[in-house]
Design brief:
2 copies of one chain form a homodimer. Chain A is mainly alpha-helical. Chain A has 2 domains: 1-51, Orthogonal Bundle (Arc Repressor Mutant, subunit A); 63-195, Tetracycline Repressor, domain 2, CATH 1.10.357.10. Helices cover 73% and strands 0% of the residues of chain A. The first copy, chain A, contains 9 helices and no strands. Chain A has helices spanning 9-27, 34-41, 45-51, 55-75, 83-100, 102-110, 119-136, 145-168, 176-195. In chain A, helix 1 (9-27) packs across helix 6. Chain A is elongated. Chains A and B meet through helix 8 and helix 9 of A and helix 8 and helix 9 of B. The first copy, chain A, binds a DNA duplex (30 and 30 nucleotides) through residues 1-5, 9, 33-35, 43-50, 54-55, 114.
Chain lengths: 196, 196
DNA sequence: TCCATATATTGAACAATGTTCAGTTTTATA
DNA sequence: TATAAAACTGAACATTGTTCAATATATGGA
């Protein structure tokens, strides 16, 4: 039984999110139930609803942190003078992250929320796209704001599609090594077409 | 109350699948519950389990038909002498289908089945890839079976990623018209890179 | 025609889910 | 120390998928 003196609200919030992440990593999305999470932190199910509006809220928070993690990884990709090389490094970083933490991404790709995601999460989903836009803006050919926005989205979506492929084929014949040269071809030539 | 004499087993199966499809189209994936489907065909919930091993079975059947539909659409794309044009026509066909029947594709992309999909469904998922492979095989450059397989998958996955983008942005600013030229650039240049 | 057998259908019941909230316990404050 | 505020509980509710004994219906042979 959880005691009020054990943790203040912020600590408890943090504890809950981490318990959720741990369960997600171990049991997958379907393991993240109110009773499981409550049990893991030593509180009763009702307490979850003291911290979050609903269970979706917990998953939104977890997903939000996964995006933070992705953004950190993208930001720490070494700067490349060549735009194409930079974008390829982004894609590979994304692919490796998805591949190494599949359940975190399962929660992002396949969680069917009954409630609306908060604006803060929607912003974080946008963050990687902003980073891609920044790099695309360095292309010699001048692109309008709209062109930049759309082409970043299309490029990232196609990389995203390939992440899904890798994710769905965890036990199959498609490895990172076999996909990387094709990602390279995809990006190299998409950019070539964009700037033609 | 359903009467045994109303339909034989095959008719009832058909009736159930169609009821499922109708509910899916109208209410989305979350509307497809055992009780809803049973109510729609005038039988009790238990009857559903006489026709399918479980509810996933019904959704597998519905998804299977969606893939059949896609394959029909791809097969009726007018033959193009140019491989790239042919692939672009495929992608546009796919995009338009997803865009016009979003809930059918929601069931394919976001249904988290508790049970394993039957081999027959897995084969149907492969069918569009086979069609893409066939066209890729017409490229002047000779590709090995493995190269063909992998590049078809990567190409289709990236188109798939863009379908998801369009699907997730049904009310947003991304239209078919704005995406089509970028799909074109994506495919044109991916193939250029592949055959270089 | 009528009974016996096989099949189809029902619907109550079970477990698990998210969620609520009246009641209890604990802490902070005056 | 008494009172108010906040946190926490856990039983309860509605809704899921799913099962299965009981019932209803159809079939085929005497």
């Amino acid at each position: 039984m959880g005691r009020r003196s054990d943790h203040d609200r912020d600590e408890l919030f943090e504890l809950t999110v981490q318990a959720g992440q741990k369960i997600l990593a171990k049991k997958g999305l379907e393991g993240v139930t109110a009773r499981n999470v409550a049990g893991a932190i030593g509180y009763s199910p009702g307490t979850i609803y003291n911290l979050f509006d609903n269970l979706d809220g917990l998953l939104f928070e977890i997903n939000s942190r996964t995006f933070d993690d992705l953004v950190d990884r993208l930001r720490s990709v070494p700067a490349q003078t060549d735009v194409v090389e930079h974008l390829i490094a982004f894609a590979v970083t994304y692919l490796e992250f998805v591949s190494s933490a599949p359940h975190s991404w399962e929660a992002i790709f396949f969680h069917n929320a009954s409630h609306k995601a908060p604006a803060s999460l929607l912003e974080k989903i946008e963050a990687p796209l902003k980073i891609v836009e920044e790099v695309l803006a360095r292309l010699p050919k001048p692109l309008s704001q709209d062109e930049l926005r759309l082409s970043a989205r299309v490029l990232w979506s196609s990389v995203h599609g390939i992440c899904l492929l890798v994710l769905s084929d965890k036990l199959g014949t498609i490895s990172m090594k076999s996909v990387e040269p094709l990602i390279r071809a995809l990006i190299e030539n998409y950019i070539a077409g964009l700037t033609a």
